[in-house]
Amino acid sequence: MDVQKIKELAEGYLDEQVELLKTFAAIDCESNDVEGNRKTVDVAEKVLRTIDGIKIEEMFFEGTGTHIIATIKPENPDGKIVLNSHLDTVFPKGFAEKYPPFIDDENWLHGLGTGDCKGGFAVSAFAVKIASELGLLPNKEIVMIYSCDEEIGSITSREVFEKAAKGAECAYVFESSVRTDKGLGVVNERRGVILGALDIKGVEAHAGGAYLAGHSATKELAHKILKLYSFNDYDREIYYNAAPVSGGRPNGVVAGDARMEFCCAGLPTNDSFAEAEANIRSLAESNEDPGCSSEVTYRTLFPALEKSDAGDKACEIASEAGKLLGLTVEAVAEPTATDANWFCYYGVPAIDALGPVQFGMHTTEEKVYIPSISEMTELFTVMLAIMK
Fold first, then answer.
1. In this structure, how many other beta carbons lie within 10 angstroms of the beta carbon of residue 141?
2. Fewer beta carbons within 10 angstroms: which end of the chain, N or C?
3. What backbone phi and psi angles, to 5 degrees, belong to 240?
4. pTM score
């Protein structure tokens, strides 16, 4: 393996990667924006088709959009790996035009979705392309999944992940880089998240003339909010949060309805979900005011990405590749959740944060540090070359 040649090719493709990210950033592609997703998919597939031997499939879900499944499969593969990043953003229609991409004087590319997670597409696709051109791809089936609904909890892409996960030895996820005091962090642990809502029905009444005939849903909700926050476990860093909150009509009427949405974040293992779900269900089991009724609903937004021996092995590959490039790479844990969590849920070890350095994720200040695009492309190309 000629590491210098890898570096030269990565540097040679950098301008193309930057232009690709500019093109992506000029397209509105919020989750569930089917039209914007189609435009984004077309751009991505044009890049993927430049890789020799690749087969591209699509899975379309009405109201959501298209997931790309691109596969390279040698004649007698010795194993299977999955690569993943997502193509949706959190920005609604009109934002791409309002906040157009540009490069500043400090070599940052500003653009919505460039860090989360179009930069991950650029790194993963071009790393495979470079490894292919240099004859360095491992003798493994490589399944590249580029999904369109990560920002809303991968509601439809889970089906794609579950299918692709069968027989895979590891999933490599290309969310943005994590930098540490020593150098570069590769994530092998992430926490899970539950989302939910509580709806309360009370009895409306005139707030002056018939106050005692009413049963206030907003008052009942106040008790529920305090109960929700009582579940916080600061030692284990498991946090419950209520927002948004609403209820009632004019202030002269005792509120007949109230609602809160909530999340439970920081669940460290998939076993810890049972405890959180019991807490959530208890919100509707009894009421301070028996004249009110409560109904709670919830769903898993992301399961937990748990540390595993196979995940540790993948981190060791990243560390070894880093040494060959003069980088210090170490395994780290992160509290936030990504699609790496879903692969773990479906039985596939995963590591994450293989994309470029970003700043301002989910804000209109989002940007990517251009030199890190080459750096991370080089890293994953070398990882592919030394996989066994």
1. 17
2. C
3. -110, 140
4. 0.92
Tokens of 121: 């597409």
Q: Range(s) for CATH 3.30.70.360 in the chain?
A: 192-302
Query: Buried (b) or exposed (e) across 261-285, using 16+ Cβ within 10 A?
Result: ebbbbbbbebebbeebbebbeebbe
Question: Which residue reads 């569930």 in tokens?
Answer: 32
CATH architecture of 192-302: 2-Layer Sandwich (3.30)
Residue with structure tokens 């990565």?
Answer: 10
Angle of helix 3-25 relative to helix 119-133, nearest 10 degrees?
Answer: 140
Q: How many CB atoms are closer than 10 A to CB 323? A: 11
Position 120 pLDDT exceeds 90: yes
Instruction: Tell me how far apart the alpha carbons of residues 143 and 113 are, in angstroms, rounded to a whole number.
Output: 23
Strand-pair category, 239-247 with 184-190: unpaired
pLDDT digits (tens, 9 = 90+) for 37-89: 999 999 999 999 999 999 999 999 999 999 999 999 999 999 999 999 999 99
Residue type, 40: T
The pLDDT tens digits for 352-383 are: 999 999 999 999 999 999 999 999 999 999 99
Q: Residue 326 region, left (φ>0) first, then alpha (ψ -120 to 50), else beta?
A: left
The H or E element containing residue 317 is helix 309-325
Task: Give the model's pLDDT for residue 388.
Answer: 81
Q: Provide CB contacts within 8 A for 204, sequence distance 6+.
A: 214, 249, 253, 254, 255, 256
Locate 255 and state its tokens. Answer: 């509120």
Distances (CA, A) of 37 to 40, 42, 44, 45, 155: 5, 9, 10, 12, 15
Average pLDDT of the chain, as a whole number: 97
- Superfamily in which the 3-190+305-386 domain is placed by CATH: Zn peptidases (3.40.630.10)
Give the span between the Cα atoms of 123 and 345, in whole angstroms.
25
Give the residue range(s) of CATH 3.40.630.10 domains in the chain.
Answer: 3-190+305-386
Q: Is 165's pLDDT higher than 90? A: no
Residue 67 CB-density burial (10 A; 0-12 exposed, 13-18 middle, 19+ buried) = buried
Contact yes or no for 317/332 (Cβ under 8 A): no
